[in-house]
Each structure stands twice: as structure tokens, then as C-alpha cells.
Amino acid sequence: MTPTQAFWRGYRDCAPFIVIVAPYSMLFGVVARDAGLDVLQAMAMAVLVIAGASQFTALALLQDQAPVFIALLTALAVNLRMAMYSAALVPHLGHARLGTRALMAYLMVDQAFAVAVRTYEDNPQMPKAAKVAYYFGCMMLICPIWYGFTLTGALVGQAIPASLSLDFAVPVCFIALAAPLLRTLPHMLAAGVSAIAALAFAWVPRSLGLLVAAALAMVTGAQAELWLKRRAERSVA
């Protein structure tokens, strides 16, 4: 596979996410304006952060008059998944030049990671240059859609009827991303614990229950991995 072929394959593989990313990003534009941001501020947040979940979290906390420090801390915790994404991609993309990796880090979103990592795992013989091109192919579709529809939502959000319920895109997006990646017992346990804990701690003020749920899920996943490793070692011995 040549880099050009890999690029266009990544572009095509991410195409189905347009159905989700478009209303999701438009919803952010609408919510940002409702929260008091002007069009320039909404677009600056979308371009600089480019992480929908943490952007919605920060806006919700600021609307609740939470201290800026709490809003930033919670948004950072939500975005810590990007660090785990990066670690998972190192075996496939770690060979790229520093500047290329920095651009990849900026462009990283849930959709591109989910599609790219699955393709890399299913195609272990994929050339290194093709892996880099594939990643950028994924992003060259997602990013313009994110920017464009955020701007659309910020400009015309007030004219969108409430009956359209654009907020459906948020849970659908993450279900579509997470479900195909739940391949092992630790993955499924971590996902289950995070969902249950998020509901159990929903009463915690300023959405800090999300931090508790994330911590419990990570501990659960790590302990499950250790348990499976020890059991495999005992079976070999």
C-alpha cells in the first residue's frame, strides 16, 4: 500500500462519522453561544481545544458558575484519554519526525484514533509511511467538518428548532467509538465501571463525579489486566 492509497483509505474509512460529527460540532456552536461566548470565542475554543467532550464539560461548568480552575481541571481529566490514545499509537507512529508527531497530537480526536488503531491492528504489515498517511487521511475529513459545523452552529444556532434535538449526537458518537474497541475483559469491565460510577456519582457537584468514575474505571481495567497476566503465568508454570 502506497502512502497515497493509505491517505485516501483513511479518508473513506472516516466518512461514516460525518453523520455524527456534523450535528455534534453544530451542537457545540449552539451551546457555546447560549453560554455567552461570541462567534470568535466559540471558534477559538473549537480550534485550540479540538476535543468535544472536554469543551462541553468546560462550558457546562462555567454556566454553573464553577471556578475556572475546576472547569479546567475537569476538562483536563476528560481529555486524559488522549494520553492513552497516544501511548497506543506509539508502536505504529512513533517513528515519525517530531514535527509530524506534534501535528498528529494536535489533530488527534476520538474518531481518528478509533479508526486508525483498529486498521493498524488488523494490518500488522502496513508500511510505516502508509500508517502516517492513513492517520492524516482520517483527520483531513474530520477536522474541516468539526470547524465548519461549529461555525454553522455558532452563526445560526438560535434559528435551529429545539425539536431537532441535536444533542442526540453526543451519546451516539461515543457509543459508536467505544463499542468496537471493547475486545477484552479489562476493556469491558472498565467501560462498565465507568458507566455505573458516572450514574452513581452524578449527585457530586460541579460534575466532579466524572473524575471519580474515570479513576475507578482506570483502576478496574489495570487490575483486570494484572489478574489476567498472573493467571496466564500460573497456567504456564
Describe the structure.
The longest helix has 29 residues, at 128-156. This protein is mostly helical and 237 residues long. Helix 1 (3-13) runs parallel beside helix 9 and helix 2 (18-34) runs parallel beside helix 4 (52-63). It is 77% helix and 0% strand. It has 2 domains: 3-181, no CATH class; 183-237.
- Which spans have pLDDT < 50 for at least 5 consecutive residues? none
Strand content: under 5%
* Biggest pleated sheet: none
Number of domains: 2
Cα end-to-end separation: 42 Å
What is the number of E strands?
0
What proportion of the residues is helical, as a percent range?
over 70%
Mean of pLDDT:
81
Number of helical regions:
12
Give the overall form: flat
Class from secondary-structure proportions? mainly alpha
What is Rg? Answer: 19 Å
Provide tags for this entry:
mainly alpha; 2 domains; 12 helices; AzlC family ABC transporter permease; transmembrane helix
Topology record:
Elements: H1 3-13, H2 18-34, H3 39-49, H4 52-63, H5 68-79, H6 81-93, H7 98-107, H8 110-122, H9 128-156, H10 169-178, H11 185-200, H12 209-236
What is this entry, summarized?
The protein is mostly helical. Helices cover 77% and strands 0% of the residues.
